[in-house]
Amino acid sequence: MGDLGTYIPIVLALTLASHLNLGTTLIFTGVYNIVTGAIYGVPMPVQPMKSIAAVAISDPDFGIPEVMAAGICTGVILFALGVTGLMRLAYRLIPLPVVRGIQLAQGLNFAMTAVKYVRKVQDFSKSKSKGNRDWLGLDGLVLAIVCICFITIVNGAGVILAIIREPKVIKGFNFGPSSIQVIKISKTAWKKGFIKGTIPQLPLSILNSVIAVCKLSTDLFPEKTVTPTSVSVTVGLMNVVGCWFGAMPCCHGAGGLAGQYKFGGRSGACVALLGGTKLLLGLLLGSSIVKILTAFPVGVLGVLLLFAGIELAMCARDMKSKEESFVVLICTAVSLVGSSAALGFVTGMVVHLLLRLRKLGGPNQIQSFSAFWMHNPLPYNKNEDDTKSVYLSMKKEVMVDAGVQWTKHGAEIAEAHSLSRFAHMHIDAAKNRGERLLDGVQSWVETAGTHISIAEHVLQEDIRNTAVSMAIDSKFKGFYKDYGKQFQISYKTYAPTILENA
């Protein structure tokens, strides 16, 4: 339930403001959760496309046909980028500090929105705050603070509290799924959906729904493989299929993944369980489930969103250099101030390229940023000594910066040499061990040959002894046979004489 902090408010707002078919959305998003959980093996979330939802909530003329047209167009483009391999190329080219800046901005945005949910009473149909929230009550500040302190009670508690707050919501349930119909989209709806929905949504989907999700998945689950190609294809297929039947345009989100991880999600089974719950609710209750969502404590949603934002923002901790941290902060600041991830992305890319050019230029060609910003160009001065001193001070600073850079390079080279020596030691040890093993094998081969020779000799001796024994037996048999014949002849000769004498 870690990603419900962003799922429920947007779905509820679209249902109330734009008459979104909630039953159909629950069925399709439930299937999405089950399939993606089985494919990736990580708690891959299914989130609404925020930019399209924002346009639909704020613009009364941007209805369901326009929303679905925007979702289909975005899905087709993402699917094409994934199939052609261009998304994988973008994943490799976009530097990590820029992605971390987008994640940090999204996390801080979630946290600020969460604080607003906790402090203010929300009107999701108009995306506005009504006023300060009461301290007491089943949707009060005290409940939200308790949920923050004891985060384990949040999972599932919101639904129970919603029923306790408004017991009448149970009476209005209509059992059975909502009717699923194909959405008819006119040419005007296609045009308006692409211009107002797809164009602002596409950069956010590429950065946050594909690239940032893959980066975050690698950070949280290094043993699992989540590729930008597969994520782009699944997001595209979800919208190309579901939007034709009125399901909310969906994508994966780094914030939802962070929320799932923060609340204990470690495998695809947790989102599959969530998907099964959505599917069951969509089939049993259909769109009547919106009544319980309107009574859901918004303060509890704020707690879910707060911890998801903190988890997402903490991903920016792995920046190791000042340059990388500078790019992250610039990208985050522009994204928050300009309310546009695309604008922050462009600014971050420009700053990153400038820093790269600075490194490639070398100390003798391009002076350091500190020297450039701290000193003006050489002023016209009648006193040559003053001009020369200014020049020497600037040159000294440049040389100091160059010395620092070369010292860093020297340390890196020394570390590389150390690692090389360490590797050669292991290679030599492995070589010696291999030679010893080879000698041992040869010794065993020689020993085996000796044993074979002995065995052959023994076998030959046995065969010879057996032959001699057989020959001796045969000789004795012949002797006794001849002796018997002679005795028989003698008996026949002397038998009559013996009988007569008797």
TrEMBL record:
Pfam families: MFS_MOT1. Keywords: Membrane, Transmembrane, Transmembrane helix. The chain crosses the membrane at residues 20-42, 67-91, 141-164, 269-289, 295-314, 326-355. PANTHER family: MOLYBDATE TRANSPORTER 1 (PTHR31970:SF0), PTHR31970. GO terms for molecular function: molybdate ion transmembrane transporter activity. This is Molybdate transporter 1. InterPro entries: MOT1/MOT2. It comes from Artemisia annua.
